[in-house]
Design brief:
Blueprint lengths: L4 H9 L46 H11 L5 H10 L6 H10 L4 H14 L6 H13 L3 H14 L5 H13 L3 H11 L2 H15 L4 H9 L6 H10 L4 H13 L7 H11 L5 H13 L6 H13 L3 H12 L7 H21 L6 H13 L6 H10 L6 H13 L3 H13 L6 H13 L3 H15 L5 H13 L3 H15 L5 H13 L3 H13 L7 H10 L2 H10 L8 H13 L3 H9 L3 H4 L2 H43 L1
């Protein structure tokens, strides 16, 4: 036979038919397996199967950061400095995500697209150009829209159906009838209809001279977009798509480029066409063409879904050898896939996964700042029969929440419940403590409320103490006081004695004297002894006599406390030399206190000491005066 693709055609017609031709040998395909000996990429051996999982997406925070950088007019050097300082990697997926975020800011989108075109042109695919085209069209930048269409035509890119419909709607609403007609004219042509006819001919017939004649008779002008459209239409029949692909070039009707090779690779990148796929991408590399990021991502996802990890790893190696290199996240993703296989082998030999192993994984991920990946690793371990112990659950909950991974922490807690295990209080406490350490106090409070809803308030006192401590550590003792009062009144929560003491100390330290008095009253209501030491210490240093009276009234259910408490308050004032405030406090005390013998003796002794101190000071002043006078007289005598 004259063309290699005809062997594939005859194989489709009958697997049992023996071809009678001098160039054909029985049981030998003319399309070699994987790569030839002269290929620029190594042979791909048989694949192994592991678990499936979608390809990792780029962190949304990076996309937001890039969008923010390009939202402000900045020169090229400043842009490079900002991107380098934030360690931002511009990938194909990142370009699409940033353009999506800048959809309503055409100036920023234009700056970003121009910068990528100048610095990373290999990252721009047909999909990227369509995204920029959508931004221009939906924002009414008509002149630039048509300029972009012309640029895309030169590159062999077409306008996607989704972009066409979106922009058409905007043009129609804006009354731009001429542009509406022009845009529709791009699609209302025979090429689109011919694509459908070609697909129908190839799908519904066994390839042969008659099929070739029918396609030729259509007089289709095969462009890159037309060929890609036909290949996409034949995606469910990859063998026929490959026959069409090979015949088209060997018949001289079209010279394949990078776009059509990638379209064919996307069709063949599946389990039942794996040898043809590797042969095609080898030919593509040898022709000096590159695999597009879009092709890599799509085929990699398909390989992983079908558990073809061996092929996925070799696809990654192939892409890394080219211009459009995969992201770091793809490497991490594949490493995890390999690890999953190791776990299955380990447990398949009768070994059990332990908490210490999971703890080692946790430490490793924490050391490289990737705690958010822990859930995925745990899932692989759980699929192999691992169940985390209570202490490890708490440790994981803390690490996730303390690292600011709120969604991952929530997912972890939900998965424990879904597995049928009960969340113990230690795990809840670790979760809340972690949220507090990360500064997510609202999330910590939400977690506590969730725990109360599920387990009730009766046993929540210790966990509540953790919550209150988190608020106090962030200097939000007043907010903690409000939460405590609300839960005590609405949920009948009974805080621990230590929680009350904690709040009193922190409120006084953070200027919440009035709130501390409220806490003092709640302590009394719950039967705890009055906690007066920090109040006396605080008032003696910076409180007024009026504040002291308020405290003395608040600490007891009676009108006033015992005389001993008054004496302690007065002594504290005197100790810090605040005689005036002590006197002011005494003047507002009830008569039985003002006339009490011990109180009178205390004030008299303090007055006596003060008077004695004043007398001693006066004598010292007189003595000093006489010494100065004598010295002055001696100087006068000597001078004479």
């Amino acid at each position: 036979m004259r063309h290699q693709w005809r062997l594939l055609h005859h194989f489709i017609r009958s697997r049992h038919r023996i071809l009678n031709h001098s160039q054909v040998r029985t049981s030998h395909s003319s399309i070699p397996h994987r790569f030839t000996a002269n290929s620029t990429f190594p042979l791909n051996p048989s694949f192994r199967r592991f678990s499936s999982e979608p390809v990792l997406a780029h962190a949304d925070t990076d996309h937001i950061l890039v969008a923010d950088i390009f939202s402000k007019p900045t020169n090229s050097d400043e842009l490079k400095t900002l991107l380098d300082s934030n360690r931002v990697s511009i990938t194909h997926d990142a370009v699409l995500a940033v353009l999506w975020k800048l959809e309503s800011d055409v100036d920023a989108a234009r700056r970003f697209f121009r910068w990528v075109s100048e610095n990373h042109p290999e990252r721009l695919s047909s999909k990227c150009y369509n995204s920029m085209l959508r931004v221009l069209g939906t924002n009414g930048v008509v002149h630039e829209f048509w300029d972009m269409v012309n640029v895309m035509k030169k590159k062999g890119y077409g306008i996607s159906k989704g972009v066409k419909e979106t922009v058409l709607e905007c043009f129609e609403k804006g009354g731009m009838n001429a542009d509406v007609a022009k845009l529709k004219g791009l699609f209302d042509n025979v090429d689109e209809k011919n694509c459908a006819v070609v697909c129908r001919i190839v799908r519904h017939n066994v390839w042969g001279d008659d099929v070739e004649r029918q396609i030729r008779d259509l007089n289709v002008r095969f462009s890159g977009d037309v060929v890609k459209a036909v290949l996409e239409g034949l995606a469910l029949e990859p063998a026929k798509a490959l026959i069409f692909f090979r015949w088209l070039e060997e018949s001289g009707m079209f010279k394949h480029d990078g776009g059509t090779y990638n379209a064919m690779a996307r069709v063949l990148g599946r389990e039942d066409s794996i040898d043809r796929f590797w042969k095609l991408v080898g030919d593509m590399r040898n022709a000096g063409l590159e695999m597009e990021v879009e092709t890599f991502v799509k085929v990699l996802g398909r390989f992983c879904k079908r558990r073809m990890v061996k092929d996925a790893v070799e696809l990654y190696e192939f892409a890394m050898a080219g211009v459009n290199k995969p992201s770091v996240e793809c490497c991490v993703f594949l490493l995890r896939k390999v690890a999953a296989g190791v776990l299955k082998v380990f447990t398949g030999r009768g070994n059990a996964l332990t908490d210490s192993m999971a703890d080692a994984v946790l430490k490793s991920l924490t050391s490289v700042g990737r705690t958010g990946e822990l859930n995925k690793v745990l899932k692989e371990m759980e699929d192999c029969g691992f169940v985390a112990g209570g202490r490890l659950q708490g440790k994981i909950a803390f690490k996730l929440s303390a690292g600011g991974n709120k969604e991952q922490a929530r997912e972890f807690m939900e998965r424990i419940e879904e597995s049928g295990s009960n969340l113990d209080h230690e795990t809840w406490e670790c979760l809340i403590k972690g949220h507090g350490a990360a500064g997510n106090l609202d999330k910590a409070f939400d977690s506590f409320k969730e725990m109360v809803e599920k387990e009730g308030v009766a046993s929540a006192s210790h966990t509540f103490h953790v919550l209150m401590n988190s608020y106090c550590e962030k200097n939000r003792a007043v907010d903690a006081c409000k939460i405590l009062c609300r839960l005590v009144n609405e949920k009948q929560l009974k805080p621990l004695h230590s929680t009350y003491k904690l709040l009193v100390n922190q409120l006084l330290a953070q200027g919440g004297f009035a709130d501390a008095l409220i806490i003092l009253g709640l302590m009394r209501t719950h039967g705890f002894p009055p906690f007066i030491d920090p109040f006396i210490e605080h008032l003696s240093k910076c409180g007024s006599g009026d504040d002291a009276v308020l405290f003395l009234k608040a600490m007891t259910s009676k009108r006033f406390p015992s005389t001993s408490v008054f004496l302690r308050m007065f002594e504290a004032f005197f100790k810090h030399g605040r005689h005036e405030e002590a006197q002011n406090c005494l003047s507002k005390c009830p008569r039985f206190i003002r006339n009490h013998a011990d109180v009178l003796n205390l004030f008299c002794s303090m007055n006596s000491k003060e008077a004695a101190s004043s007398e001693v000071s006066a004598i010292a002043v007189v003595r000093k005066f006489w010494r100065v006078l004598i010295l002055f007289s001696l100087i006068l005598i000597i001078g004479k």
